[in-house]
Amino acid sequence: MKLHPVLEAVTRRIRERSAPGRSAYLARIDKAAAAERGADRMGCANVAHAFAGIPPSDKFRVVAERAPNIAIVNSYNDMLSAHAPYGSFPQVIKDEARRHGATAQVAAGVPAMCDGVTQGTAGMELSLFSRDTIALATAVGLSHDVFDAALMLGICDKIVPGLLIGALHFGHLPTVFVPGGPMPSGLSNSEKARVREQAAQGLVGRKELLEAEEKAYHTQGTCTFYGTANSNQMLMEAMGLHVPGAAFVNPNTELREVLTREAVRTALGILKARRFTPIGRMVDERCIVNAMAALLATGGSTNHLIHWVAVARAAGISIDWNDFDELSSVVPLLARVYPNGTADVNQFQAAGGPGFVIRELLDAGLMHEDVLTVREGGLREYTREPVAAAERGLAWKDIGPSREESVVRPAGKPFSPTGGLKLLTGNLGRCVIKVSAVPEDRHVIEAPARIFDSQEALQAAFKAGELDRDVVCVVRWQGPQANGMPELHKLTPPLAVLQGKGHRVALVTDGRMSGASGKVPAAIHVTPEAAAGGPLALLRDGDVVRLDAPAGKLEALVDPAEWARREPARLTGEQADANGHGVGRELFAGFRRNATMAEEGACTWL
C-alpha cells in the first residue's frame, strides 16, 4: 500500500530535522554493539561479582559456555494492581531462558507509582518526574554491562516511557517489552463517571463513591479505561516492541504466561539468528511516526505528546506538536474506548484490539510497514491475535472484520476522519486539545476567564457556587518547572457538572489532563508555562478567552496595547513554598529547575 503523502512528508521532515542527532546516536550504539561481550572483557573480580548470586549451573553457562544473559528490568510492586503480577515473572523468565541454554538476571527494580492513588494529592507532583527517575534506574541496572539482551517489565503511565528512554540509552541491546495485561471488567467506566459527578454535586456521599470506585478497580491488572497505561501498550504494539498481540491479555491466565515465555524466546531468537535489531536501530523516525499514528487512531492519552517527544529524543530523533497535528489531520479515529466511548479495553480487545487497528492503518498507508520489529516477520505479525497452543506454545490467527463496530471500525468507515487532536496557538502560547470526546457544539468556547493558582482553589470556587455560569477556568503554575506538571483529573467532575447545566465551560492549563477531561474542552500543556514567564501569567480575572479548536486558536481577547503593558504575575507566598516541600518534593528541586518545556518532552536529563 502506498504511503499517505502527509505521513510520508511528516516522516521525511522528522528525518531531515533529526539527521545530526540521529547520526551521532547510531554511531554510539554501533560502537557499543561492536565491543567484546562484558563477561569476556571485564576483569576476573568484576565477573565474579556479577555472577556471584546466581546458581552454579547458570554461572557455568554464562561464564564458561558464554551463553546469552538476559537482563530483567522489573517495575514490580504489590501496591499497584497493574504491576503486582510482575512478582512471578522473573522466575518464569529464568525458567524459559534455561530451557534454551541461556540465563537471566534481574538487573534492576525500578519505581512505579500510581497516578490513581496520588491523583489530586501532593504526591502527584512527583508523577511526571518519576518517568526520568525510572529511566535513570534502568540505566543503573544495565550499567553492569554483562547483558546480551533485555526484557522490560512495565505497563503504566510513566513506567513504560521511562523504561523505553532508559533502554534507548543502551540502544545496542535487543530489547523486548513484556506487558502484564488489564484487569477483568468491573463497574463500567461510564457508571463510575456518573457516580463521581453525583459526588461532586453532593448527591451521594463518600460511602457510595468508595463503593463504586472499588467495583471499578477491583483486582490485579491495569485500569480498564483507555488512559496512559493502556495507550502505552497500544504504542508498544505499533512499534513492534512486544510479542505480537500481548498488550491486552488479562493477568494470571495461561495465555499471559505463554506470552511471557515467548518474550524470552523472541529475545534469544534475535541473538541466535544474528539479526542486528537492537532497540536503538528499531526505534527510528518511521517507528516513532507509527506510534503517533496508533495513538491518534485510538484516541489515546495526551500524555504521550510529552512522553513520546522525550522517547524520540532518547533515540536522537526530534519531533514536535506540529508533527502530531499534521498526522491528526489525516489519521482517522478507528476506536471508541472510554473516555472516548463507552467500551473498556477488554471490549476493545474482544472487538479486534490493536491488531485490527494496525492492520487498518497499514492497509490505508497510514503506518510504515518497512520497519524492524522484535519479530522476524515484521509489523504484519502485529495484525493477528495470539492463542495458546500445545506444550506452552503459541499460534496466531487472523482477526478478521470488526467484531463490534461501536468499538472499532475499518479505516474506510471511521468514527471521525481525523484523529481528534488539535494544536492550538495564539497569544496564550502553544497547547493541545483532545476533541475526540467533546461534543461538536463545544469545540468553540468564548467566555470570561476565572484565574486559579491551584486545582484546590477551583474546587473550592465550584463548591461555593462561584462558577455557575459560562466560564473559562484557567489553572496555572502547573507546568514542569512550577510543580512537576501534575494531572488535574479531580477537575473533571465539577467541570462536567457545570457543562451539564448548560453552561459553556472550558479548562486552560499548563498542567496535564491525560485526555480524562472527556466531554469538557480542555486546552492543556500550555507552553511556555506560567512559571517560565509564559502568557498565562498575564491573564487576569474577567479577560475574555476564546478557545477555537477548528481554527486551532487559543487567545485572550485583550487589547494588544494593554496586553503588552502587563507584567507577568508571580507565584509567591505559601502556595509557592508548598510546591517544593512535603512527600519528598524537596528531592526533586533539581528536576523542576532543569526540566525542559512540555513540547520538548519535559526532560530533566538534557
From TrEMBL:
GO MF terms, alphabetically ordered: 4 iron, 4 sulfur cluster binding; metal ion binding; phosphogluconate dehydratase activity
Binding, [4Fe-4S] cluster: 156, 223
Keyword Nucleotide-binding among record annotations: no
Cofactors (names): [4Fe-4S] cluster
Cofactor binding summary note: Binds 1 [4Fe-4S] cluster.
Any Gene Ontology biological process: D-gluconate metabolic process
Segments forming domain Dihydroxy-acid/6-phosphogluconate dehydratase N-terminal: 68-381
Pfam families linked to this entry: ILV_EDD_C, ILVD_EDD_N
Dihydroxy-acid/6-phosphogluconate dehydratase C-terminal domain mapped to chain residues: 407-602
GO cellular component, one term: cytosol
Alphabetical keyword list: 4Fe-4S, Carbohydrate metabolism, Gluconate utilization, Iron, Iron-sulfur, Lyase, Metal-binding
Secretion signal span: none
SUPFAM superfamilies referenced in this protein's UniProt entry, alphabetically: IlvD/EDD N-terminal domain-like, LeuD/IlvD-like
The reaction(s) this protein catalyses: 6-phospho-D-gluconate = 2-dehydro-3-deoxy-6-phospho-D-gluconate + H2O
Superkingdom of the source species: Bacteria
Annotated pathway: Carbohydrate metabolism; Entner-Doudoroff pathway
EC number: 4.2.1.12
Role played: Catalyzes the dehydration of 6-phospho-D-gluconate to 2-dehydro-3-deoxy-6-phospho-D-gluconate.
PANTHER family found in the cross-reference section: D-XYLONATE DEHYDRATASE, PHOSPHOGLUCONATE DEHYDRATASE
Family label: Belongs to the IlvD/Edd family.
This protein's name: Phosphogluconate dehydratase
Origin species: Ramlibacter monticola
